[in-house]
Write a structure and sequence with these properties.
alpha+beta, Aminopeptidase, 7-stranded mixed β-sheet, 7 strands, globular
Length: about 170
């Protein structure tokens, strides 16, 4: 078993889009209407949007590979790239997605630890994320990784307003 993490570049945009569609559908399509899923996927994961995000110096994407196959990815944000104003001492984990066939191999933990490493290297005091209140498996995983709920915010899946729990982990 070989696991490694590589930073994404603009040349990875198409692969990132493919994995984004796949993992988001696997995770959320059963609980949302096809119309809302399609609207969100087109807005969040179109190539122009992903290229803009990859090019933002305040955002970073990383692929995690398992036995030489891309298994998922991580997106982190600092500064004004964060989806909520959490300040310059915070790093946001915006996305942690693992393809279903690679789940239960500890890859999510690798990605969270990569985010922690980035945050520590950038002298951040906290890391935080938003997780859908109905995603019980993810909430349990984040709690196990030392995150605690500190708030909530709205997330729009197409035209449906949903609630994301804000979970935070203090580093320093």
């Amino acid at each position: 078993m070989t696991i490694y993490i590589n930073k994404c570049t603009l040349e990875d945009s198409c692969k990132l889009q493919e994995i984004s569609y796949e993992t988001f559908n696997e995770t959320f399509k059963e609980q949302n209407t096809p119309e809302n899923m399609n609207a969100y996927l087109e807005k969040a994961f179109n190539l122009k949007q992903l290229e803009k995000e990859i090019s933002n110096i305040s955002s970073q994407f990383y692929f995690v590979s398992f036995n030489d196959e891309v298994a998922g990815y991580l997106k982190v944000n600092t500064g004004d790239a964060q989806s909520e104003k959490m300040g310059d001492e915070s790093l946001e984990i915006e996305r942690v997605y693992i393809r279903s066939k690679f789940q239960k191999h500890g890859l999510g933990k690798y990605l969270i630890n990569k985010a922690i490493e980035i945050a520590v290297n950038e002298n951040k005091r906290t890391i935080w994320l938003g997780v859908w209140e109905k995603n019980e498996n993810a909430i349990a995983f984040y709690k196990n990784m030392g995150f605690v709920q500190t708030g909530a915010h709205s997330f729009y899946m197409g035209d449906e307003e949903q609630t994301d729990l804000i979970m935070t982990k203090t580093l320093l």
